Amino acid sequence: MITYNDVKNDEKIKAYIQKADESLLALGFTEHSFAHVGLVSERAGYILKTLGYPKEDIELVKIAGYLHDIGNIVNRKEHSQSGAVMAFRILDKMNMDAEDIATVVTAIGNHDEGEGEAVNPIAAALIIADKSDVRRTRVRNADIINFDIHDRVNYSVIESNLSVDKSEASVKLSLTIDTEISSVMNYFEIFLKRMLMCQKAATRLKLSFKLFINGQQLL
């Protein structure tokens, strides 16, 4: 079986991730490089591991997490679909089992809030892990005065924690926000669609999705 470490250590894949992120940097987007895909991989794996999914599923969701944004090397628009096609070719050349390729490609092709759906547990865990990555260190604009709303909201997040409570069947995203930089309303203005997508994804995993900001439950 092709493992997460096999994918993570592949030099060609590293190049694709780096070049995809360079395109997003040129467009003014937040960081989508190794820090992001690494965190998404680990969070997605954590979700399924905590819920007792098989080791094979955990490996597949971590692979999907690591590859999920490579489509940005083609174009930001519909990057989930182009990324899924790229992942198919990469994993096929690595001789991954066809059923496993199908699972990874499906998750990648469904991770974006534009057209994506949590069609299976792998896709659901990837969606939650990806959409929960809001943090100050993703902001690359050094000039606070020229922050747009996305920069302000991400920069305002001092602490971010995702936790799964199997006993109460919930997944909780807890954020600590500096409201002098960005209001809670600003957060919902740009992330409401993503949070609703997380709710649907949690349902696929038989969980409820809870959002806490500065200690108060908002979802």
Overview of the structural elements:
The protein has helices at residues 4-8, 11-27, 34-50, 55-67, 79-93, 98-109, 121-131, 149-156, 184-204; strands at residues 157-165, 170-177, 208-213, 216-217. The protein has 219 residues and is α+β, with helices and mostly antiparallel strands. It has one domain (4-217): Hypothetical protein af1432 (Orthogonal Bundle). The protein has a four-stranded mixed β-sheet. It is globular. The model has no long low-confidence stretch (mean pLDDT 96).
Please tally the helical runs, counting DSSP H or I stretches of 4 or more residues: 9
Number of strands: 4
Overall number of structural domains: 1
> Unreliable segments (pLDDT under 50, ≥5 consecutive)?
none
Q: Considering the protein shown, what is the CATH homologous superfamily?
A: Hypothetical protein af1432
Query: Residue-averaged pLDDT, rounded?
Result: 96
Report the helical percentage: 40-55%
CATH uppermost class: Mainly Alpha
- By CATH, the topology is Hypothetical protein af1432
Task: Name the structural class.
Answer: alpha+beta
Shape: globular
Q: Provide the spatial order of strands within the biggest beta sheet.
A: 1-2-3-4
